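Per your request, structure below.
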């Protein structure tokens, strides 16, 4: 039996060329050429009937024999033992003081640095058994609380270790996707990967909800306040304008009745009490108009009314007050209290100067 040296196809007896690739057949192709077989990997068989077993079999598919004593794969098992050895050497330092505790959260401990280095340097295995075993280990070791942005108890070490685990999870998923995409084992790996991503999304969403609950009430309160002002302000404004209009009507009625003193008091009470500066100026002018009109009518009828503007009217006429001039009653009172002492001190200084100039001695000589 002869085989083509180029493509390995079994040759027809007496053929000068390979019937598949057309490669010329030499004498060496027809002389004791044998196909060589090379087997790699391990073949697992049922100890009861010899049936070849697939990965993750718990019972023999042929005879139903229960398979026991299954062990974790050597690569993943060795990796897990190294992680446990690093964790067992962790040294816990009790922080002293508030600032030291905060500083400890912002740095990565030596133990966690070693774990991160081991996780990142771990070579992803090629067999699907090892991939699935590692995927289970990695996803179960991740701390989903690190993705909660509102959680202030998570340290930088925990975040860095978690990031290293998730990076390896992504690598395993991508490698399994390319190598075993048509295998049922890949579906298990994909299920673990999707579940991990779903938990991450939920943790992030939870953090956003917490932030909204913590600070989201501030704009809500402002919105409610603005809505209340928008709703109530027109009503209050309308009431104020109605009150001022009634005062004007009372002034007119008092003038018609010849009650000039009463009309003057009512006109002087015209005072806008809302927050619109334009409306305030308008009603200040209205008040001045009615006061002058009342005084004018009273004069025409031979009645001399005395009218002294109130401080509010003075302010409406833009006459500067103590507060507008930058000085208050306290400052003026303080100056008034110090003035007598300052005057007495000045008199003493003047008298001392006169003594130095000899004025006192000349006065005494004159008296003698």
């Amino acid at each position: 039996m002869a085989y083509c040296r180029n493509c390995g196809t079994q040759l027809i007896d007496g053929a000068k060329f390979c019937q598949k690739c057309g490669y010329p057949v030499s004498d060496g192709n027809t002389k004791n050429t044998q196909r060589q077989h090379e087997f790699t990997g391990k073949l697992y068989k049922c100890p009861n009937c010899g049936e070849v077993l697939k990965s993750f079999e718990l019972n023999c598919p042929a005879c139903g024999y229960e398979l026991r004593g299954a062990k974790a794969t050597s690569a993943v098992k060795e990796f897990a033992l190294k992680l446990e050895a690093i964790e067992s050497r962790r040294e816990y330092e009790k922080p002293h003081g508030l600032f030291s505790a905060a500083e400890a959260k912002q740095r990565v401990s030596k133990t966690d640095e070693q774990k991160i280095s081991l996780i990142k340097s771990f070579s992803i295995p090629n067999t699907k058994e090892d991939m699935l075993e590692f995927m289970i280990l990695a996803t179960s070791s991740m701390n989903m609380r690190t993705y909660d942005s509102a959680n202030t108890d998570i340290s930088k070490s925990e975040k860095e270790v978690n990031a290293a685990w998730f990076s390896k999870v992504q690598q395993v998923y991508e490698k399994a996707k390319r190598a075993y995409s048509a295998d049922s084992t890949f579906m298990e790996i994909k299920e673990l990967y999707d579940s991990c991503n779903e938990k991450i999304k939920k943790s992030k969403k939870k953090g956003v909800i917490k932030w909204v609950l913590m600070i989201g009430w501030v704009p809500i309160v402002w919105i409610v306040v603005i809505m209340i002002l928008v709703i109530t302000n027109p009503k209050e404004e309308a009431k104020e304008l109605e009150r001022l209009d009634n005062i004007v009507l009372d002034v007119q009625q008092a003038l018609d009745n010849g009650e000039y003193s009463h009309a003057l008091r009512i006109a002087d009470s015209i005072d806008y009490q809302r927050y619109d500066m334009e409306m305030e100026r308008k009603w200040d002018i209205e008040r001045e108009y009615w006061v002058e009109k009342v005084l004018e009518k009273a004069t025409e009828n031979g009645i001399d009314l005395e009218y002294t503007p109130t401080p509010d009217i003075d302010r409406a006429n833009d006459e500067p007050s103590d507060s507008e001039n930058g000085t208050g009653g306290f400052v003026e009172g303080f100056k008034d209290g110090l003035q007598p002492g300052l005057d007495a001190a000045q008199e003493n200084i003047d008298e001392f100067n006169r003594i130095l100039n000899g004025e006192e001695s000349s006065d005494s000589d004159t008296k003698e």
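Residues 135 and 192 are 7 Å apart (CA to CA).

Regards,
D.
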